[in-house]
Amino acid sequence: MKEAVLIAGVGKRFGEVQVLQEVTLSVGEGELFGFIGADGAGKTTLFRILATLLLPDEGRSEVLGLDVVRSYRDIRKRIGYMPGKFSLYPDLSVEENLRFFASVFGTTVEKNYELIRDIYSQLEPFKTRRAGKLSGGMKQKLALSCALVHRPEVLFLDEPTTGVDAVSRKEFWQMLGRLREQGMTILVSTPYMDEAVLCDRIAFMQEGRMLALDTPTGITTLFRKPLFAIRARETWRLLCALRASSHAASVYAFGSALHYTDNRPAVRADELLVALQADGFTEVSVSVIQPGIEDTFIALMEEKQGSDHV
Fold this sequence. Notes:
The chain is an alpha/beta fold. It is 35% helix and 28% strand.
C-alpha cells in the first residue's frame, strides 16, 4: 500500500512542555486511521503539524510525498482539515460559508457537489441560516462539507464528534465510511473508544507518545492478563472490596460490571466467586471475558506510568 502520510520521529515542545515525543508511523492511501487518546495526548498538535499549521521541532513528516515544511503550499491545496473547535464564520449563512471555502480553493460547490451531497443535503433546508445558529451536529456537518468542497486527497478530522449527540455521532461516522469507500484517506482523532473500532488501524497516544499501533482487533492482543467481569447487587461495596484486595491488579467500572485483573497468574473465576461469597456478597457472578479496546488502553497507560516511575 502506497503511503499517504509519513511521520518519522516527530517531536514538538511548547516552552518546557514536551508535547510530542518521537512519534513515528505511516498511513496508507485509502485508509481510515484513528488516533485515540485523552485531552493532552498530543493529537491536535500532531494534526496541526500534518496540516502545515505548526512546525515540528524534531523529525520529519510527509503528506502525499511532500514535506510539510518545504512544500506546505502544495499540501494545503490537496488536503482537507477540520479542527476540533468550530472555526467557520458564524455570521455567514450555511450556503455562504460553503461557497466561500469553495472559492478559496478555486472551485465551486456545483463542481464537487456529488462528493458532499449526502452530507450537505441535510443542511440545504437551513442554507440561509447563520452558521452560528446551527446545532452542534449541524455545525459539524457544515464544517465537514467545507473541508470536502475542493475534493481533497487526504482528510484530517480533529475530534470531529466531541460534544455532539449520539445520533449525530453515528451519522457522522457513516459519512466517513462512505468517503473511505470512495478511496479517500482519512485521519481522525477521538477520545471515544467506541469510535476506534470503526477505523482500519488505530494508534493509542498518551502524553505525546505512541503507546501502540495496530488494527482494532489486533491491539487488544496486547492485554496480557486474564480479564474478569464481576457483578453483584452491592456494586459500590464490591468495587471498594476488590480495590482493597492485595491480589487486585486493576479494577474499573464498565456499565453494570466491574472489569478485574488479578496479580495471581492462574486464578480462576470460580475461586474469585467463592472468595467473594465468603466476604458476604450475594447475587454475585464472575466470568472470564475478552478485553476490549478501552481495557487495553487503560492497561497500556498504567504500564507506561509504571515504567516512568521505575
